[in-house]
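User: My collaborator and I are trying to settle a disagreement about how two of our proteins should look. Neither of us wants to argue from intuition anymore, so we agreed to look at predicted structures for both before our next call. Could you fold the first one, then the second, and keep them clearly separated?

Assistant: That sounds like a sensible way to settle it. I'll keep them separate. The first protein:
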Amino acid sequence: MISELRQLVEESHHKSITDIFMEIFSRIKKDSDLYNTIASENDDSTFPARILTLCYKEMNLSLESQFPKMSKAKREWLFYFMANGCSGILGHWISTGMNEDVTEMSEFIGELSNKVLS
């Protein structure tokens, strides 16, 4: 399951944040029973964060090109700031039954991310 999400992220080189999250949310929703079991019954509160960590390599390349004068340490801080926020949204969405539409969720994360990066 994590390997499927990793492959999905690795194949998203030139996609927007919204599109990447659209794929992540769609995959999780498709296999909602499995994800609910992992995230709740096993009390794995780190699961959403582990999903977002998969995005580090791709996102770091993007941040490096967008902020070439920013130190590597600050780019890492920026990534983890954004990843933890997205992880919180993703975890809440999973734990509350995945009721919101994947498009709405993905667009919301894309809008927030774009504001942080502007």
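The second protein, kept apart from the first:
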Amino acid sequence: MIKLIKFYTDICAPCRMMNPIVKAVVDELDGVHCESINATEQPDVAKQFNVTNVPTFVVLRGTTIVGQKTGMIPKPALKSWLEGLNSP
């Protein structure tokens, strides 16, 4: 099981564009949980994960960061990336 943390801000157009893509991919994959964090409202959490731009996607297995990407990610690429990180 992995957790995808999506960092966003309300004024970020690419962040809004990623919402349906992230939802669709997470719905299609077993063992992937998603949490969204507003980087403006929770700057300490964003800083903890070294988030300097949004959207940023951080993947955790337990408490260990196993992947991190920033920017728009096409649905096939996001799905493939998460599948690879979720495999044993």
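Some points you might bring to the call about the second protein. The longest strand covers residues 2-8. The beta strands are 2-8, 32-38, 56-61, 64-70.
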